[in-house]
Amino acid sequence: MRKLRVVIAKPGLDGHDRGAKVIARALRDAGMEVIYTGLRQTPEMIANAALQEDADVVGLSILSGAHNHIAPKLMELLKAKGLDDVLVLVGGIIPQVDIPRLEAIGVKGVFLPGTPMHEIVDFINANVRTSRG
Amino acid sequence: MPVSMKTAAGGGKARWERETLGPALGRSPERAAGFSTVSGRPIQRLYTAEDLAGIDDVRDIGDPGAFPYTRGIHATGYLGKLWTMRQFAGFGTPEETNQRYKGLLAAGGTGLSVAFDLPTLMGRDPDHPLSLGEVGKCGVNVASLADMETLFGGIPVGEVTTSMTINSPAAMIFAMYLVVAERQGAGWQALSGTIQNDILKEFIAQKEFIFPPRPSMRLITDLFAFCAHAAPRWNTISVSGYHIREAGATALQELAFTLRDGLEYVQWGVEAGLAVDDFVPRMSFFFNAHSDFFEEIAKYRAARKLWAEAMRDRFGARSERSWKLRFHSQTAGVSLTAQQPYNNVVRTALQALSAVLGGTNSLHTNSLDEALALPTEAAATLALRTQQIIAHESGVASAIDPLGGSYFVERLTRDMEEEALAYFRRIDGMGGMVAAIERGFPQREIAESAYRFQQAFERREKVMVGVNAFVQPGEPPIETLYIDETAEARQLAKLEALRTRRSGDAVARSLDRLRRAAGGTANLMEPILDAVRAYATVGEMCDALREVWGEYEEAPTI
Question: Among B113, B193, B203, which residue's Cα sits nearest to residue B167?
């Protein structure tokens, strides 16, 4: 069986990449193929990476408060590229009031500081559309 | 009495283990097979006079206010002057943040500390596409001198001390502050405060870089040279371990990389033609106050000794002011939890106490809600009160360096010092810190430590109360500060008005001059001051330099 392919992206101007790097390593150790985009990715760059890498999962690490701008734009672009079935997750500092908004636009999981890595691994395994690829 | 005498007279640890500990362990075993700090440093069960072997009372520990300053840089400790209680704050527009500052000063805060938003930190104007959604979110947006004038409106900059946390565009923001002072009638000679201006830790950890390392270093040494005469009481840099630690470094790595960054700046300053004692006295440091109480205290004490010895012996500094490491500290943001957020008050109090026992010169205490959002005013006030309770109720500020001579603290101090020196030798071997960064060495070391901690946390070898132990389901949410999108709209409108109001010609001329200076070798502060006075924006000034120097891109590695 093909390994799950995960794009971990760090959008926006923020450079705090500890969380992005730790989750990338944890998913790799859990047997997934992880592509880390590096810093300062626009929604366009992330959607292109998802397409080119044939991603099953896109994980966004956002701590700066810009999620309400970045996530909707990315969801739109993924849809336009026919990638609506990619599992999109957001990790970082997200105010409680914004979580239902993100879920309403199709973000499947929002993970706050302190989430154990295995919880994210389990979430991906339970929710990813295995029909892809 | 020298320590070695005590050691010779003691020597009973082995006997204690045999005769007293052994039977006790037989009755009730220890909680774990071994104990270690939050950084994974193994800790012995007991420290005695024997552990002071090789540590000299006079040479290594010394006296407060005297070389090598292990026990503090002030002969009077906190008996003369307490540490500065400096709370980092900034959000939204300059108007809103100005109000918060006035509130902090009224509540007894003794210094200001400006948090800028990401567009400002990254040298982008609010109308740049990359600024979308980021304006005013993590700090205050300052696009031009006009915003700086608003930020300090009604605050006499000649009478307060101000710290500004900004790095890549530090020279531009500092120039704005100088012009604000000028227009308030405050002389630059007496101006007091700190600009972070530490680009090396950006490449290492926080990643808010714009230009490549070498031209970035020039901006810094230009600021050193300019301030030596124009603003001699200003701290020209705050060499920062804070962000290195937050990115996952151990306490030792924070200590070693930060001090080695400091040495790198001194080296570059000397190579730029500056005399050590002309600029080193204005260098300051910034450390994290993390959760492992004694390891943190040892870290601060080792830092002072390492710096004093390096300045005297490696760089031949003759002035005591060059030998004294002054530092700010901030409690560990990364230790705060979104779960059971009131627990964060207790964490912060303990971390702050370690910074005080380690001799911090100024301190920021985090607010209980910062794993969720920027702090509310009530939470920020409670954080300040935490410092005031330590200062005025706990009694710890009544005797100088009260933990000096502790077997445990002195052993840890010495071990961390020696291990930091080993890191210095490795980095020297690579050709210095800029070269080590270009090879990705400190970045890899930190990522490795971050992952190791995460694994220890997941295995519950490291406990975070409320997160992987003592979890409490169904907690009610607490009230947090919500930064809405109106700050962005207001900043955009003001910027548009500014662009029509100012002289486009004057701006273009000043930016041309800046571009030419960047291509040459003259000090960049004067052209930057010119551009600031013409109301050129942060984005325009940084773009001028981007055209000449290019932008730095980091190769993504996991």
Answer: B203
pLDDT digits (tens, 9 = 90+) for B164-193: 999 999 999 999 999 999 999 999 999 999
Residue of A nearest to B466 (CA): A114
Q: What is the percent of chain B with per-residue pLDDT over 90, rounded to a whole number?
A: 89
Segments of chain A scoring below 50 in pLDDT = 133
Does A133 fall in a domain? no
Indicate the pTM of the whole model: 0.94
Inform me whether the pLDDT recorded for B219 exceeds 60: yes
* Residue B454 sits at the chain A interface (C-beta within 8 Å): yes
B558 — contact with chain A (CB < 8 Å)?
yes
Domains identified in chain A, total number = 1
Architecture of domain B58-458: Alpha-Beta Barrel (3.20)
- Residues of A at the B interface (Cβ-Cβ below 8 Å)? 12-18, 21-22, 24-26, 28, 34, 36-40, 42, 64-70, 93, 95-97, 112-114, 116-118
CATH code at position A93? 3.40.50.280
Q: How is A94-107 classified by DSSP, letter by letter? A: --GGGHHHHHHTT-
The whole-number pLDDT of residue A130 equals: 64
* CA-based nearest residue to B246, from A122, A14, A8, A117: A14
- Average predicted confidence (pLDDT) for chain B: 95
Asked, for residue A31, whether it belongs to a domain, the answer is yes
Does residue A32 belong to any structural domain of this protein?
yes
Candidate from B131, B447, B458 with C-beta closest to A21: B447
> What ipTM was assigned to the predicted interfaces of this complex?
0.90
> HEC string of B447-492?
HHHHHHHHHHHHCCCCCCECCCECCCCCCCCCCCCCCCCHHHHHHH
Residue A73's domain comprises: 5-127
CA distance B406 to B418: 18
